[in-house]
Amino acid sequence: MTLDLYGFGPALAAGALMTIKLALSALSLGLILGLLGALAKTSPYKPLQWLGGGYSTLVRGVPELLWVLLIYFGTVSLLRSLGEWIGYPELELSAFAAGTIALGLCFGAYATEVFRGAILAIPKGHREAGQALGMSKPRILWRLILPQMWRIALPGLGNLFMILMKDTALISVIGLEEIMRRSQIAVTSSKEPFTFYLVAAFIYLSLTIVAMCGLYVLEKRAGRGFVRAVA
Amino acid sequence: MNWELIIKWLPRIAEGAWLTLELVGIAVIAGLILAIPLGIARSSRHWYVRALPYGYIFFFRGTPLLVQLFLVYYGLAQFEAVREGPLWPFLRDAYWCAIVTLTLHTAAYIAEILRGAIQAIPPGEIEAARALGMSRWQALLYIILPRAARIGLPAYSNEVILMLKASALASTITLLELTGMSRTIIARTYQPVEIFFAAGVFYLVAAYVLVQGFRQLERRLRVDACQGR
């Protein structure tokens, strides 16, 4: 049996590219949100702790699909009134923007916990050493905490990124032309659903494998100074 | 926030929530049953026993659930043999397709949890069982599995919560569970924020109840008593 894509190959490739773009932009937003969430959760101020805890609990308790739908359809009226107020009535969220926000929000909620664990894993003495050297708080964060946190958090973040990449399929529900949406279009004309969804599945599998290899390299780099200590 | 609207549609939303719980309940129990042989085979010493469950787990964990749902619900109909086959009345039905897919999907994850749990059992305990004259099967049944169940329980409860959220995808194959029902109501009322808010609260409450239930179960099974080794 040879694989006949009925000329939809380039469309699927374009879809894969869109999936990668979406995953990377959601990743950037999610990393920022996760970092802020973890800093809020580990801060000594109670209201900030509540804010961080509330964010991660609320977002993790509701399905990703619901966030996607809520952000895409739920913000229409809000953005319209905002648009009228600033004199630009056609203001609306594109499927890509809504997908980035929804997936970034979900990634950030899980990343909050990963980053928090990593921050707690850094020995207290390192922070105190920074203080003893007269470093300011932001400087301690930037020079001492973040570089070490990165190494500890990387395996957890890698898992989350794999989940994120598979969750990009959800954005097809609001019409973004990524792998799933392109496959659906191909199915309507070719009438071969199994073939095309299986091809889509294998595209996702290969993306996962590439991400796994990338993570392996990153983890090796991040653990440069530690490899010998363990072995 | 339009509370009257939420209250008016609450019975329908609860109806959807019930279907969600039904899907998740069947999937995580059937998935567990399917995962036990898979997980045991996956932690086997022989590579030819490991290979098949490894491929299965790799496929189901490496592809999105949405793709798997579409493969089963839309994809299987491509084949004449399936449409003529005895299982067609089931595979034609979105409900059974969702249950089959969710079960196969969660079984892959549970099998991996089980493998981790089996490999986390201190080898000395298994050797002790064998030294006491237990056969391999007895050791598996009385020592390895009960021990693995306690080690894997926290991870299993995580998986159940993840499935609760993953079941929202069943709405994409026309099933009127919590998310699907909400979308149907919104198509009629044009009030996405209120209805999605209500659905979100239902999910949060369900997740909270499940977490508390598992906490009770962990206490009943004395999970923490086994952790100090």
From TrEMBL, chain A:
SUPFAM superfamilies, per the entry: MetI-like
Keywords from the named record: Amino-acid transport, Cell inner membrane, Cell membrane, Membrane, Transmembrane, Transmembrane helix, Transport
A biological process term (GO) from this entry: amino acid transport
Subcellular location as annotated: Cell inner membrane; Cell membrane
Molecular function terms from GO: transmembrane transporter activity
Limits of the ABC transmembrane type-1 domain: 16-215
Matching PROSITE patterns: ABC_TM1 (PS50928)
Assigned GO CC terms: ATP-binding cassette (ABC) transporter complex
Transmembrane residue ranges: 12-38, 93-111, 194-218
Topological relation to the membrane, as annotated: Multi-pass membrane protein
Record carries keyword Mitochondrion: no
Keyword Cell membrane: yes
Family: Belongs to the binding-protein-dependent transport system permease family. HisMQ subfamily.
Protein name, as recorded: ABC transporter permease
Taxonomy of the source species: Bacteria, Pseudomonadati, Pseudomonadota, Gammaproteobacteria, Pseudomonadales
From TrEMBL, chain B:
Domain named ABC transmembrane type-1: residues: 17-214
One Pfam family of this chain: BPD_transp_1
GO molecular function terms attached to this record: transmembrane transporter activity
Keywords in alphabetical order: Amino-acid transport, Cell inner membrane, Cell membrane, Membrane, Transmembrane, Transmembrane helix, Transport
GO biological process terms, semicolon-separated: amino acid transport
Subcellular location: Cell inner membrane; Cell membrane
TM region(s), chain numbering: 20-41, 53-74, 94-118, 193-211
Keyword Cell inner membrane among record annotations: yes
Membrane-topology annotation of the record: Multi-pass membrane protein
Database matches in InterPro entries: AA_ABC_transptr_permease_3TM, ArtM/GltK/GlnP/TcyL/YhdX-like, MetI-like, MetI-like_sf
GO (cellular component) term, any one: ATP-binding cassette (ABC) transporter complex
SUPFAM superfamilies: MetI-like
Keyword Transmembrane: yes
Family: Belongs to the binding-protein-dependent transport system permease family. HisMQ subfamily.
NCBIfam families membership: HEQRo_perm_3TM (TIGR01726)
The name this protein goes by in its record: Arginine ABC transporter permease protein ArtM
Source organism phylogeny: Bacteria, Pseudomonadati, Pseudomonadota, Gammaproteobacteria, Pseudomonadales
